[in-house]
Write a structure and sequence with these properties.
Blueprint: E1 31-38, E2 43-50, H1 61-65, E3 68-70, E4 73-77, E5 83-86, H2 88-101, H3 109-122, E6 134-143, E7 155-165, E8 176-180, H4 198-202, H5 205-213, E9 218-220, E10 237-242, E11 245-248, H6 259-270, E12 274-277, H7 282-291, E13 294-301, E14 305-314, E15 317-320, H8 328-341, E16 352-354
Parallel strand pairs: 8-9, 8-14, 11-12
Antiparallel strand pairs: 1-2, 1-7, 3-6, 4-5, 4-6, 5-16, 6-7, 10-11, 10-13, 13-14, 14-15
Bound molecules: 2-OXO-4-methylpentanoic acid.
2-OXO-4-methylpentanoic acid binds near residues 72, 301, 303 and 304.
Length: about 350
């Protein structure tokens, strides 16, 4: 099925930043996608319009009760100048799982994909070229009723905005220092940890600020009940090389089902590596760090891509990973993912989706 999405173009495109001036998520393109949902009728009035402010009443549900979900995915400019999205089907599926958890109406995956492709195609000149850069795509749905009852909104708005970006962390591909959080918790069994919902991020800010104040880039979250099992970093999933095995915590409902995580596990299996999705306790990790069997630690995420971890701190003790150097698997995964995304390596799993036919 094809979707006719009307486009209202900006009269005058904005000046575009140079590729070497890009940061993360502070510059937005000329256009955005919008649509609305009301009552039982589902989503309607899809349209591409100039990027600009949204008007909200102070009573709007999302501002009070955080009924909102989002996604993050990227479009890349290939060496052949074709612009492709990386695994948009996985983000769309996750968005709809988050929608179901947060009582937001789901979106027809075909309409969602058409919106992503057409919006990126309209702003294709904004997709940067330099190595390590991409166009970050941020779809968001939020509750838009002006109503102070604590109940699901009857109306919703959905938008997609685009931002040309470079690395998420100021460290770039250099190893991060991470603090294992032993006080605050990000999520708990039966909670919203697996959903990409605003409240998860709001709830993590204080721990992140305190860690940054002490010189760490982020916190590594432990499970919310025993504070024993490793979960995720909050802006990315986490993986370790312990001995010869790639190990990452399993998807038990409390951590985000990362698309980069899934892709990295696939690539490692393609390399013939042993891969285990299994619970990892902090005790096991620190024992591996002490004995030297912890060979690599790295985060995986759309924004963060592959972010090597060079140091873990837990209850005041510091553990160096690989003496703060980037490990060979982190490097190989980063290079291979980037090559697939830029069309320099065969896309064996069909991950790349051109935005124009
Ligand atoms: C992403 O990796 O796309 C994320 O959403 C993480 C963060 C920037 C919120």
């Amino acid at each position: 099925m094809s979707f006719e999405i009307p486009v209202t173009r900006v009269p005058q495109p904005k000046p575009k930043p140079r590729d070497d001036q890009l940061g993360f998520g502070q510059v937005f393109t000329d256009h955005m996608f919008l649509m609305d949902a009301a009552g039982e009728t589902g989503w309607s009035d899809p349209r591409i319009v100039p990027y600009g402010p949204l008007e909200l009443e102070p009573a709007t549900v999302v501002l009070h009760y955080a009924q909102s979900i989002f996604e993050g995915l990227k479009a890349y400019r290939g060496e052949d100048d074709v612009v492709r999205l990386f695994r948009p089907d996985r983000n769309i599926a996750r968005f709809n799982r988050s929608a179901a958890r947060l009582c937001v109406p789901v979106i027809d995956p075909e309409l969602f994909l058409a919106a992503l492709k057409q919006l990126v195609a309209v702003d294709r000149e904004w997709v940067p070229r330099a190595p390590g850069t991409s166009l970050y795509v941020r779809p968001v749905a939020f509750a838009s009723d002006p109503d102070l009852h604590v109940r699901p909104s009857r109306t919703y708005r959905f938008f997609i905005i685009l931002s040309p970006v470079a690395a998420y962390y100021a460290e770039g591909f250099n190893p991060l220092r991470i603090r294992v959080e032993d006080g605050y918790a990000r999520s708990i069994r039966g909670g919203t940890g697996a959903a990409k919902t605003a409240g998860n991020y709001a709830g993590s800010l204080l721990a992140g600020e305190e860690a940054q104040r002490d010189g760490f880039a982020q916190v590594l979250w432990l499970d919310g009940i025993h504070q024993e099992y490793i979960e995720e970093v909050g802006s990315m999933n986490i993986a370790f090389v312990i001995g010869d095995e790639l190990v990452t915590p399993p998807l038990t409902g409390t951590l985000l089902e990362g698309v980069t995580r899934e892709s990295v596990l696939q690539l490692a299996r393609d390399y013939g590596m042993s891969v285990a999705e299994r619970p990892v306790t902090i005790a096991e990790l620190l024992a591996a760090a002490r004995s030297g069997t912890l060979r690599e630690a790295f985060g995986t995420g759309t924004a963060a891509v592959i972010s090597p971890v060079g140091e873990l701190a837990y209850k005041g003790e510091r553990f160096r990973v690989r003496d703060g150097e980037v490990g060979p698997l982190s490097r190989r995964l980063f290079d291979d993912l980037s090559d697939i995304q830029r069309g320099r390596r065969p896309d064996r799993h069909g991950w790349m989706v051109p935005v124009e036919d």
